Amino acid sequence: MQYVDVILPLPLEGMFTYAVSPELATRVQVGVRVVVPFSKSKRYTAIVARCHDDKPDFEVRDAEEVLDEQPILMPQQLHLWQWISQYYMAPLGDVMNAALPAGLKNEEGYRPKTETCIELCEPYRTEQAQHIALDMLRRAEKQQKVLVDYLYLSEGGEVTREELMNESHCTSAVLKALIDRKILRTYEREVGRLNHGGEPHPERIKRMSPAQLDAYNSILFQFLKKKVVLLHGVTSSGKTEIYIHLIQKALDEGKQVLYLLPEIALTVQMMDRLRAVFGNRLGIYHSRYSDAERVEIWQKQLSRNPYDVILGARSAVFLPFQRLGLIIVDEEHETSFKQQDPAPRYHARSVAVMMAAHGRASVLLGTATPSMESYFNAQTGKYGLVELKTRYQGIELPEIEVVDVKDLRRRKMMQGPFSPQLLGAMRKALDEKQQVILFQNRRGFSPMVECKTCGWVPHCKNCDVSLTLHKTTNTLTCHYCGYTYTVPTQCPCCESTDLRGRGYGTEKIEDQIVEIFPDARVARMDLDTTRTRNAYERLIGDFASGRTNVLIGTQMISKGLDFDSVAVVGILDADSMLNYPDFRAYEHAFMMMAQVAGRAGRKGKRGHVLLQTKNKDLPVVQQVVRNDWQGFYQDLLEERRLFRYPPFHHLIYIYMRHKTESTVESAAIYMGSLLRQWFGERVLGPDKPSVARVKTLSIRTIILKLENGIDLPKVRDYLRMAQKQILQDKQYAALQIFFDVDPL
User: Fold this and answer.
1) What angle do helix axes 141-154 and 127-136 make, rounded to 10 degrees?
2) N or C: which end of the chain has fewer CB within 10 A?
3) Contact at 8 Å (CB) between 280 and 196?
């Protein structure tokens, strides 16, 4: 009798053994999917990880079906899954769930991909009829706005329902009303899932400048000695052109390339740039693609004609590659490469480095503001280091002006969140037909609502946070659990109607800019306006082409986007980043401010950045002004060494969650005492996190600080022992314990 050990898509430790009948045995091999029974009535699609003849000493059930003729998981992928599971202390089933598209975890059928499009009904296709329709809708302002937006969008060709709703910020009900009036109608069009980008055009690759050529040759030389090389190049130094030359070299050698970006938004511009050169050799892979698209890309990568270049976000590390030769991790410092929830809480940069260590690929980490860990590894010789210190075509770094808002507020010279200096610079830029970017790393209208009479602030009933006001939808929203409330008309405590928003989110910034600059064409880029794939493309395309000239956004706008005509960048509230209660706050703030500043003056004259802060004399602020990465790094390195933080120590956070606070408190104390027996002073806590209740569950955290060189596999064994010991206690049966290795 043959047996198989399989990975189930469940958060359970280890693998599960099933028997294989003689009829199925000839088709079973490592990497294929099998349907297996689990519990009394459940059936799951599992991945075969091992075939063997070792009869278990317990009763086993039979695998019911083999779904594949050929493996869908390659041996190196299985090895990577196992490493991720061990290193990040996550069950293999969680890794499987993160890695495989849902369509490969069930017996899903495929249908042609279609999009719902909008068009005018026949009677309204003349200009005269459209004027009549707009006049007819004068009392239905929302419907009228949708029709106006449709007419604007239709000038560029077909309009999808998704594009129209995103442009108008309208509800389905408003659009349905126009359809019921028989002014608009819907129809379906079939669209291809995969990239058919035309023939490759390597002749379109630009010649490198002398500085770029030196960096390119240095990278190739470093790759002879090191698997991983860090390219530290200032913003707008032309790193992307170096990447393109390296990709072409890898393709010429018959290798595949994985190009990782931290944000889906960045794939829009980068996709156009790479597609112009590599055509149909380029594939795109990220979470905003439909599951069917991701399944088809996975299957294509297993075929005889896979994509040679994959451009994707962090999940692209899980794709199958038959001859991977180069991995580029662009903006390697970005925290978006780290998966937070759910498990596995992996870092795509670390996974890429591990892929290189166990294969023949090289890894290039590129950034203008390296992470402390990567720069430390480069300085100590673990990674190669190449630096590119000049901007492409000699463009100067932007002038950064620090604006003391504390003094301006004292003198009552601030106009809301805007300093006179910022408004003046914006006015000048707009008069000269230049563009402006405003950075506010908080979405929504106001971070909280407060009763001005008694001070009541609405809080989420599920989480220990105040609710954020979203004016567009007239709701109060929890950004942790997603629960929404209608904005109250009066205070439930004192019945006052004087309820006001406190603070500024991107939505409120947008409103005020429209009021101050009524002729400006303003767009907002945050999570609320980019929930669909087309939304990114529309926002970025409009700004790149000049259809909008003021872009307001959260950290999305800081991540490598390239615009030609940005003259002014305003950082509205640097203090919100600098005062965040985290040991990485200054590192993340420096990176974010330096990156968003780099959006200014990328072509033409020198850009102007206005950095508004109440703490203008902080060393980190002055280091941003001088673009003094070296000074910042040295200062922070000494601080990290003194307080035992990365890169000198590894961190593991242990989280405990339970619906009852007293239970999670006692469990945390119990866990802390167990860990101190083994790790002593390396254990910090337990403590309440800054948000101590999320989705009705109370939370406690313990931090492990582990010096470099410690036996990490043994540490993980001890942690598993402690976890198992606590969960065996009946009072903690419903307790959740999970680990975050190398947290950000």
Assistant:
1) 160
2) N
3) yes
Terminal alpha carbon distance of the chain: 48
Query: What pLDDT is attached to residue 638?
Result: 94
Which stretches of the chain score pLDDT less than 70? 107-112, 190-197, 265-266, 393-394, 533, 559-560, 602-604
pLDDT in tens, 473-525: 889 999 899 889 888 989 999 999 999 888 899 999 999 999 999 999 999 99
What is the b/e burial string over 158-182, where b = at least 16 CB atoms within 10 angstroms of the residue's CB? ebbbbbbbbbbbbeeebbebbeebe
Task: Answer for the pair 671, 656: CB distance below 8 angstroms, yes or no.
Answer: yes
Three-state secondary structure string covering 181-249: CCCEEEEEEECCCCCCCCCCCHHHCCCCCHHHHHHHHHHHHHHCCCCEEEEEECCCCCHHHHHHHHHHH
Q: How many CA atoms lie within 13 A of 2 on its CB side?
A: 16
pLDDT score of 196 = 63
Sort 581 into a burial class: Cβ within 10 Å, 0-12 / 13-18 / 19+: exposed
**What is the residue type of 424?**
G
Run of H or E residues at 47: strand 42-52
What is the rounded distance in angstroms from the CA atom of residue 84 to the CA atom of residue 347? 10
Residue with tokens 């009066």: 490
Residue 617 DSSP symbol: T
DSSP 365: E
Residues 6+ apart with CB under 8 A from 390: 211, 234, 237
Tokens coding 265 = 């938004």
Helix 619-626 to helix 585-597 angle (10° resolution) is 30
Q: What is the pLDDT, as a whole number, of residue 539? A: 87
Q: Burial code of 35-65, b = ≥16 C-beta within 10 A, e = fewer? A: ebeeeeeeebbbbbbeeeeeeeeeeeeebee
Answer for the pair 650, 743: CB distance below 8 angstroms, yes or no. no
Calpha distance 43→61 (Å, rounded):
12
Q: Radius of gyration (Cα) for the chain, nearest Å? A: 28
**What crossing angle do the helices spanning 264-278 and 533-545 adopt, rounded to 10°?**
70
Alpha-carbon distance of 491 to 526, in angstroms, equals 30
Tell how far CA 417 is from the center of its chain: 27
Query: What is the per-residue DSSP string for 497-528?
Result: --EEEES--HHHHHHHHHHH-TTS-EEEESTT
Q: Cα dihedral angle (322, 328, 334, 335), rounded to 10 degrees?
A: 20
pLDDT tens digits for range 87-108: 999 999 999 999 999 889 875 6
Give yes or no for a contact between 190 and 155, defined as CB atoms under 8 angstroms apart: no
Please write down the HEC assignment for all residues of 564-592. Answer: CCEEEEEECCCHHHHCCCCCCHHHHHHHH
157 DSSP 8-state letter: S
Distance, in Å, from the CA atom of 577 to the CA atom of 590, rounded to the nearest integer, reads 9
User: Assign residue 122 a region: left if phi > 0, alpha if psi is -120 to 50, beta otherwise?
Assistant: alpha
Q: Are 615 and 621 in contact (CB under 8 A)?
A: yes
Q: Is pTM, for the whole model, over 0.90?
A: no
Cis omega (within 30 of 0) on the bond before 71?
no
Token duo for residue 685:
């806590």
pLDDT value at residue 577:
87
Contact 1/27 with Cβ under 8 angstroms? Answer: no
**Cβ burial, residue 402 (10 Å; 0-12/13-18/19+):** buried
Residue 32's CB: how many other CB atoms inside 10 A?
21
**C-alpha span between 471 and 391 (Å, rounded):** 41
Q: Please give the C-alpha separations between residue 354 and each of 92, 182, 528, 639, in angstroms, as whole numbers.
A: 17, 58, 35, 29
- The DSSP bridge pattern shows strands 468-470 and 282-285 to be unpaired
